[in-house]
Design a protein that fits this description.
Mean pLDDT: 97
Number of helices: 2
Strand order of the largest sheet: 1-2-3-6-4-5
Largest sheet: 6 strands, mixed
Distance between the termini: 16 Å
Helix content: 10-25%
Oligomer: single chain
Order of helices and strands: EEEHEHEE
Radius of gyration: 13 Å
Number of domains: 1
Structural class: alpha+beta
Shape: globular
CATH class: Alpha Beta
Strand content: 25-35%
CATH topology: 60s Ribosomal Protein L30, Chain: A
CATH architecture: 2-Layer Sandwich
Amino acid sequence: MRKIHSERAPKAIGPYSQAIESRGFVYTAGQVGLDPATTKLVAGGIGPETERVFENLRAVLGEAGLDFTDVVKTTVFLTTMANFQAMNAIYAARFGDHRPARSTVAVAELPAGALVEIDVVARTR
């Protein structure tokens, strides 16, 4: 197992790693829309939060030498399914023609008051 850490993504706010590489896969921790420079949730709602989540994920994957084309599975957590379409539009733009498997679930609450959290599993090269 190898721990992966990017300075371009928020530091872990608990006893976990940003990502772990193991047996040909990278498993990321869930990312919320925290700005790594300020460690504060970005303002503006679901759109800016989702964009920041993908920037954070891109940084962590990049630290492992990967990008979104290497992702095989995602899990999306939303505090309300009313935000599904807005999140999904950004998600689709970030993945382009690549379509990893995905689960999307509604949850009561997320860390830092976030509206969305996403984690990914990617294959190593």
